[in-house]
Structure formats: C-alpha cells, structure tokens
Hints:
Layout: E1 2-3, E2 8-11, E3 15-25, E4 29-45, E5 48-63, E6 66-69, E7 73-75, E8 80-85, E9 87-90, E10 94-104, E11 108-124, E12 128-144, E13 147-164, E14 166-183, E15 187-189, E16 193-204, E17 208-210, E18 216-225, E19 229-233, E20 242-246, E21 254-258, E22 269-271, E23 274-277, E24 281-285, E25 290-292, E26 297-300, E27 304-307, E28 311-313, E29 316-319
Parallel strand pairs: 1-3, 2-4, 3-4, 4-5, 5-6, 5-7, 5-8, 6-9, 7-10, 8-10, 9-11, 10-11, 11-12, 12-13, 13-14, 14-15, 14-16, 15-17, 16-18, 17-19, 18-20, 19-21, 20-22, 21-24, 22-25, 23-26, 24-27, 25-28, 26-29
Amino acid sequence: ITNEEAAINVAQGATMEGASVSLTTNGNNVVIDGGNITTNMLDVNAAQLNVNGGTINATRVEADHAMTLSGGTVDTGDGTGMLKAATISLTGGQVKGTNLTIYANTNYAQSGGIIEATTATVEAGQNINLTGGKVQANTANLNANDDITIAGGEVQATTATLTADIIALTNGALVADEVEMEASGDINEAAGFALDASKLIVSANNDIKLDSKSNQLERVNVKQAGKNVLIGSANGKNDEDLRINTANKVAGDLRVTNYKENSGYNNAIKVPIQLYAGGSITLTNEEASIKVTQDATINADANVVLNASDIVVAGTVTAHDVAT
C-alpha cells in the first residue's frame, strides 16, 4: 500500500495478511492503531512507524526511519525474528519472540512495555537507554557502540551480557544468575541501582565502580581494569561467601566491601585464587570473616588492608609497602 498524500492507519478491526506487507507514505506516518497484521515481513517506508495497539505477527518488522511502540503486541514467532529501524522507542505494549533481535541504527530507548523472549538481543549503533519497562529473557544481550544507561526498569535473565563504551547503572535493577559486562571506557553504578548476580564477570579499560549497597553478589571475576575497581555487596538472600578474583592485574586500586544488612545472613569475603593490583588492595567485611584460601595470593604494588571481625590467611599476602 502506498499513500503519497497522507498517513496510513491500520485501525481497530482491520486485518492485513500476506507473505510480505509493504506500507509506504510520502513523508507521513504509518500508524497501527488496533488492527492486525500477519506476515513474514512488514516493511515500512515512512517518516515514522507508530504501533499504538493491535497485533503484528511478523518474523521481521523494518522501518527506514523511526519506530515507536506504545501499545499492542509485536510477535516475531518461534524462530529468529527482528525489529529494525533508524531509532526505536518502546514506551508500552509487548515485543516477544524466541530468538529476538531489536536493532536500532542509532539509538534505542525504553521507558515502558516489556520485551519477552528466550534470547533477547538489543543492539544500537549509538546508545541504549532504559528508563522503565522490562527486558525478560533466558539470555539478554545489550550491545551499544557508545553508551548503555539503565536508569529505571528491570533486566531479568538467566544470563545477561552488556557491551558498550560506557555502562552507567543509575536506577532500576539487573537480576540474573550470570552477568558479564565489558566496557571500552568506564562501568559506573549509582547507589540506587540493584545488581543481583550469582556470577559477575567485569572488564573495563578505565574504572569499574559497582559499589551499591543494593547489590547482591556471590562470585566476582575482574577480567581487566585499566584504572580502579570498587565492588560492594549486601547479600540478604543466602549465606554464600562473596568470592572475588582478578584474572589479570588491576592497574589501580582494588576495594571490595561486604556491607552489613539485616537479613540474618552473614557473608564472608573469600579469596579463592588471586587478587593482584598495581595500587592498593582493601577488603572490608562488615558482617563476617575474610578468608584467603590455601594457595591463594593477594599481591599489591602498594598497600594491602584487610578489615574484618576474623581474618584467616592460609595463602599468601604480599604488599610492596604495608600490609595491615
């Protein structure tokens, strides 16, 4: 369907079916306002695709400019599905599928609605900005060439990966059994964010700051850090040790804190393999002990400071300056 004069509106009660559906306007919008579209490929050539209601059952939905979803359902089905546009904004409604990719050439923004899939991948040529809504999947992947900002809403997954230049976690929650973050710049977390992960793997060329008292962490592996590392946890779910390891030498300081909370669970800090830093290493446990297991090493080019009610060292602690 081509309309050279005005918008195209798929209104309540309208139905469109075909192997492919193409909707084209001359600088106007295409609006899905309660109708139903069933196709393998929905191709929209318009100033903007607005999905306000209704249902789109399509393996691929592509818009050559902006795509805004504020209501209704987009279902890409049981196989590999994709939503693709220059910019994508999800403010309401539902996007679901099995192996689902949402790709924005520039920016992806989500302030509401839900993404629900077995594997959900959100990719942006520039930024991903989550301020509300939910991403729910067995595997959730967020990949941006510039920044990922989570300032509200929730990412809930079994496995979650975040890859960007800068990762900023300011509000909301990321809940997963396993989380991996990789930044070519910084990873920063504000006090209001909740990172809940049984296994956390982090890597950044600059600072890593994941020090919120709302975090609930168990196993943390720092693969690489070009500057300083701050890790904080207040696990109130269980009494598992907070196990911390550095796969490679942290360029700056390393500070790990287990904060006291009121659940009744007390978590030790455990060094099972190694901690290695070019600056100082400080471990503080406000609840329980610090344990350096047999054959484990703590090695700092500056100071090592261990603060806890009980400190058990079966391995080796080496400080170039002072060990306290």
